[in-house]
Amino acid sequence: MPSKKNNLISQYRILICGGHLAPALAMIDSLRKQGNFRIFFIGRKHFFEGDNATSLEYGTINKLKIPFYSISTGRLQRRFSLEGIKSLIKTPLGFIQSYQYLNKIKPDLILSFGGYISLPVCLIGYLCRIPVVTHEQTSILGLTNRIISLFANKTCLSFNNTKHARNDPRFIITGNPMRESILNSRFEEEINTWDKSLPLIMILGGSSGSHVINQAMSRLITQLVKQYRILHQCGNAYNNKDFKMLWSMKNSLPVRSKRNYIILKQINPQKLGSLYKQSSLIIGRSGANTVMEIAYYNKPAIFVPLSFSADEEQKENAKLLRDAEAAIIIDQNELTPENLMSKINEIFTNLNSYNKNAIQAHKRFFYNGQENILSVITSVLNS
Where does the chain hold its CATH 3.40.50.2000 domain(s)? Predict the structure, then answer.
């Protein structure tokens, strides 16, 4: 790569890839503030194979007017199965597409956020002598990042004592990047409900939605809207079947109750900080970014960790707030409407205590990850 030590960093082409959108958006914010970075994005256009629903990353990146390139590649499987074999068959296509995109974009640096999408991009980039920086969001270095870290210039970690991280100077603790709209939310989203005096519960199912949470909520809505306002992000996977089911249920409610239940397929990331501020309780999955955002806003939570996340990383994330007595964990196989309602009642009965614990839990996290990663990128580009 030709030296650009004496040039402005704004002249660099940065290619972002990987499966974690929230930290990618945080870094896009940070990179754009530095000047006229040329930013490109490689990701997945659809949530699942055969599902017509477009991914949140595809819609969000396009709205930001950043060139988006869709890739199809095989997932790394920990267990032998027929589906695993079918997935691996697509792996060569991922490498071919990666080479084609890299040859077209000619990036000065690849910034990866893990996930199976990033492996062929980073490996081909390394073979083409393009610097690679990867970031791990969770307290457990994922399988893909374990591989990428073998050849990456730097591997950035969110937490001290990250499992599977090596004692290597190429590993650096940066914290997790958080979006400006989360850190400095000034916009107050108007929540158009009937009774604004009721506490607000926000349900976050993740970018594709959580079918099991949606199912449990569907049996509780009639009861919950009598005591709370509900803002439910249900996702648009499964060809919108959950959204249609919940919308039908909403329409069957009395007028006042109906206005206390808001269903959204997705939440605009620019409005999420405002919604965190106004919520009294968050219910949802426990991806690293969600856990950190909840901690940042000192909110109690009920987590239903994704049961098949690698190394139970979502459960480990949730424990960071559970162990601080600021959250409750419900295992997915134990999630029932009755159990969920019991935990909601438990938190609101002891809300003052949970709020105090959430304030203390806030101090356990690093919230300047984007600044630290930007420093890493600058150092790698100028080395």
Answer: 9-178+367-381, 183-364
Instruction: Return the percent helix, strand and coil in the chain, to nearest 5.
Output: 45, 15, 40
Predicted model pTM: 0.78
CB atoms within 10 A of CB 88: 14
**E strands present in 137-182:** 154-157, 171-173
Checking DSSP bridges between strand 154-157 and strand 109-112, what pairing results, if any? unpaired
- Per the structure block, which two tokens stand in for 15? 């290619």
At the topology level, CATH places domain 183-364 in Rossmann fold (3.40.50)
Q: If you classify domain 9-178+367-381 with CATH, what class do you get?
A: alpha beta
Residue 2: alpha-carbon gap to chain centroid: 35
Instruction: Render each residue's pLDDT in the chain as its tens digit; 383 residues.
Output: 334 544 444 489 999 998 788 899 999 989 998 887 899 999 988 765 555 677 778 888 999 999 999 998 756 555 555 555 555 666 788 899 999 999 999 999 999 998 889 999 999 999 999 999 999 998 889 899 999 999 999 999 998 888 899 999 999 999 999 888 888 876 666 677 768 889 999 999 876 778 999 999 999 999 999 999 999 999 876 677 899 999 999 999 998 888 899 999 988 878 889 899 999 999 999 988 899 999 999 999 999 998 876 678 899 999 999 999 999 999 999 999 999 999 999 999 999 999 999 999 999 888 889 999 999 999 999 98
The alpha-helical segments, DSSP class H, found in 53-192 are 56-63, 82-89, 91-105, 118-127, 143-148, 180-183
Give yes or no for a contact between 355 and 300, defined as CB atoms under 8 angstroms apart: yes
Beta carbons within 10 angstroms of residue 379's beta carbon: 13
Tell me which residue of 208, 209, 204 sits closest to 283, measured CA to CA: 204
What is the edge-to-edge ordering of all strands in the sheet holding 327-329?
Answer: 261-264, 229-233, 200-204, 281-284, 301-303, 327-329
Length of the chain: 383
